[in-house]
Amino acid sequence: MGKIYELAVIGSGPAGLTAALYAGRAELDTVVVEKAPISGGQIINTYEVDNYPGIPGISGFELATRFREHCDKMNLPFVTGEVKDFQLEEDIKVITLDDGTVIRSKTAIIATGANPRKLMVEGEERLAGMGVSYCATCDGAFFRNKVTAVVGGGDVAVEDAIFLARLCKKVYVIHRRDEFRAAKTYISKLLSMENVEVIWDSVVEEINGGEVVEKIQVKNLKSGDKKELAVDGIFIAVGYNPSSEVYKDVLELAPGGYIKADESGITNVPGVFAAGDIRTKELRQIITAASDGANAVTGVEKYLNSL
Length: 307
Ligand code: FAD
Hints:
The chain is of the alpha/beta class and 307 residues long. It is 22% helix and 27% strand.
């Protein structure tokens, strides 16, 4: 049957790299699988990370490089490939990559993250990180006393708008329907804030600016009217796509596709753990992903000891 690892870590963003670091230190026979040519996950493209304790203002790429270099001290094998299939052969986790490679392991930590959904409008990609943001918790502080727009109408959009309204001079909330789908208490709070203006039944058609965001083009879906809003930043909160498709026949997923797991990372399958943005949780950040990676390894050790 070939080699059976003690642990396979899938994904090498902050959660996967932290899990690998802890696994290396615990001397677990570990393999890390990553589909991208470099490690780091979502932070690779983040212009500036200003909320990771102890290293303010570091670029996402630099932080990702430091995570990976630290991990490399453990001398673990990294395999480049996309996991396309995940099955159980009794207690063994069988992981198949896009090139047909099969990895067998007693345990697995799934740390494949979740990608923010895009609006797919003109200017969005070009100005990402230059005023276009997908994370108010991460980037809100850069827009103190400025004018911002939030796009979306669910819980995250409403919470982001409240968070930004406390910092910004003015916050537009642009929602394509005529009511929010969020907790009532949050909606009342948002609507009571004087510097918030909700623009109902509308979508953003374009994001404009030279080096940074300067304005957005908004269209009312009912009347067809168009208007231009001068903004310094636009926060897109229209949902996430968790990278969990491969696991849906084996693991219990929550609505929205996140793997059901608390901070221990324990899933419905013994020996399979979920860490970072891929699992059900409140706050998706680098620090919480790293924390999950460490916790999941503790679970792995307990599981291996019980065999
Ligand atoms: P990810 O970082 O998403 O990493 C997942 C990894 O798994 C990736 O490397 C991916 O290639 C790999 N993978 C996925 N599927 C497969 C597969 N099938 N096979 C193999 N590998 C796979 N947080 C902060 O704390 N501060 C910030 O300033 C900040 N800024 C952000 C800015 C942006 C634009 C975004 C999108 C997010 C930001 N975040 C920030 C959030 C933070 O990046 C995430 O919470 C964190 O990266 C989650 O880490 P993770 O390891 O769970 O997942």
